[in-house]
Every structure is written in C-alpha cells, then in structure tokens.
Amino acid sequence: MSFFDKIFGGKSETPDQKSFWKKIESEEDLAKAIESSFHHKIAVFKHSTGCFISRTVLRNFEKEVENSDPKVELYYLDLLAYRALSNKIAEILEVRHESPQLIIIENGKSVKSASHEDISLSQII
Questions:
Q1: To 10 degrees, what angle do helices 83-93 and 27-36 make?
Q2: pTM of the model
Q3: Which InterPro entries does the record match to this protein (predicted)?
Q4: Exposed (0-12), middle (13-18) or buried (19+): which is 122, by Cβ within 10 Å?
Q5: Which tens digit of pLDDT belongs to each residue from 100-122?
Q6: Would you tell me how many other CB atoms lie within 10 Å of the CB of residue 82?
Q7: What's the pLDDT tens digit per position in 13-24?
Q8: Cis amide prior to 100 (ω within 30 degrees)
Q9: DSSP summary character for residue 63
C-alpha cells in the first residue's frame, strides 16, 4: 500500500471488522436485515472503504459502540464492493444515498438516517 493510500484510504484496504457487525453482501443479506427490523431496531452503516472521512467516521462510531451496549443489530455495507446493494437500500427505504451513512430501520422502514459527522450512537438510542 502506498503512502498516499495509507493517508487517504486505498481502495484495496478493508477495515478490521468488529464482531458486532453483520455484513450485507447480497440481496438475501439485505432482505434478512430488513426482516429483522420487524422484530427489533437495526442500523445499517454504509461505508466507503476508499474514503478517509468515511473511515474516520466508522472508527469513531465503532469506539462508541464498543463502550456501550446498544440494543440494536448493526449491519455493515462496503458500498464500493456492493454499490448495487447500496442503491437498492436507497430505493427500498426511500433514503437519499450518502457516504458514510447510518440508516436506522424499524418495521421495514427507515426511521432516521445520518451522514458524516452526524453519525453517532445517539442516532440509534
């Protein structure tokens, strides 16, 4: 990885995945996540792995989650690898695409979303 990729985020970089994340990598994963929202609140974090800002927001969010006990399932979407799924989320939930983005879902519908510096655990609770 080049010096600039380390600073600004190389496209091949994949973040260390925390154990609380459930990955969305297929339409089936997305359908299961939305189905779960009928039983309890869920949150989907859409992350651009090639973006320094997105990586910083993700790290800050993960630190918040690690130091708390959120009563919500957390889903992670690498939107560069799964752009079609990101577009599907925007379409199904009628939420304008942003990156990074946190979408809170209850009963199959988006009840709140945040992007960039507005992403925090307080959006979920």
A1: 40
A2: 0.85
A3: BrxC, Thioredoxin-like_sf
A4: exposed
A5: 999 999 999 999 999 999 999 99
A6: 20
A7: 444 667 899 999
A8: yes
A9: H
